[in-house]
Design brief:
2 strands; mainly alpha; two-stranded antiparallel sheet
Length: 298
């Protein structure tokens, strides 16, 4: 039977001349995350860097993930970096556009529900308008920054952990590993509660099935980057508890806001609306993946 792009992505570890198993893969993931923490601390004490803003500093902190993972794949496992989820470049534009559109639509819906129910509102700028056009340049650049940051998280979670766990423990093991890692990596963020945990778990499962369905990371990176960018740089809402800066619009809680709808300090990701949306999207994506799998094994 001819191997499909989906199978090639999930089983990419077979291409390695010196493959890594689940234990080594998990250690690599932790080291990559530690490199982000170490780089963040280094940048915080580097003259001039903190003044660039939290968004830029964060994106710079995630750059080592891309570099270190490339080094690991190239010199230790001896397989192509593209095998982590960047094959089929002809399909990339369509998958990127789809991921960005779904993320933007979902976040806009969550904002709309919060505003229409009176739990959030659009704030005016000092000049009396609702749009800070002076921040437009920053907002455009922030999309690049969020792509670096979100892409790095996808490389580790939906890329490397799935590929290192799936050959030994199958779908269940791979999903548990990448979901646990992604959720724990955000566990110290401001405003963590049961809904933010549910949101993190659901988005992990959603993007896991999505990556397996498409056979790569183009779409999930686009979703992740656009999701964070729309919250932070477009609507001015905290992303996983991290405050927004220099946003085009500013959407904030009303004085009597219900955290179940506004998400509280964690942001809209911890809202009941977002959790419900992610649950529906995850179920639909899992069904889509299962149908594709059944067709391939029929």
């Amino acid at each position: 039977m001819t191997e499909t792009r989906r199978d090639s992505f999930a089983g990419a570890m077979r291409e390695a001349q010196r493959p890594s198993g689940p234990l080594v893969g998990s250690i690599v993931a932790v080291v990559l995350f530690a490199s982000v923490m170490a780089t963040s601390i280094l940048l915080a004490f580097t003259p001039g860097v903190p003044a660039l803003g939290l968004t830029i500093s964060s994106s710079l902190a995630f750059l080592p993930v891309w570099i270190l993972l490339w080094v690991w794949l190239r010199f230790k496992e001896r397989r192509a970096f593209a095998s982590i989820g960047f094959r089929s470049p002809s399909a990339a534009p369509r998958q990127i556009a789809r991921g960005a559109a779904i993320a933007f639509g979902a976040m806009s819906l969550a904002v709309g529900v919060a505003v229409l129910t009176g739990n959030m509102e659009f704030f005016q700028t000092p000049d009396g308008s609702y749009t800070a056009w002076t921040a437009l340049g920053w907002v455009i650049f922030a999309l690049i920054a969020f792509t670096i940051q979100g892409g790095a998280e996808e490389l580790i979670s939906r890329g490397y952990l799935i590929q290192s766990w799936m050959p030994r423990f199958g779908l269940l093991g791979a999903m548990i590993a990448q979901t646990a890692f992604f959720t724990l990596a955000h566990s110290l963020n401001t405003g963590m509660n049961i809904f933010s945990v549910l949101s993190l778990v659901l988005v992990s499962l959603l993007l896991g099935f999505w990556a397996l369905s498409e056979g790569g990371l183009w779409g999930v990176i686009a979703f992740h980057a656009t999701w964070n960018w729309a919250q932070n740089s477009l609507f001015g809402i905290p992303v996983s508890g991290i405050p927004a800066e220099n946003s085009l619009l500013t959407v904030g809680e009303t004085t009597d806001a219900d955290p179940l709808i506004s998400g509280g300090l964690f942001g809209l990701e911890a809202s009941l609306t977002t959790v419900a949306m992610l649950a529906i999207m995850t179920a639909a994506t899992a069904v889509f993946w299962a149908r594709g799998r059944n067709k391939r094994t029929a």
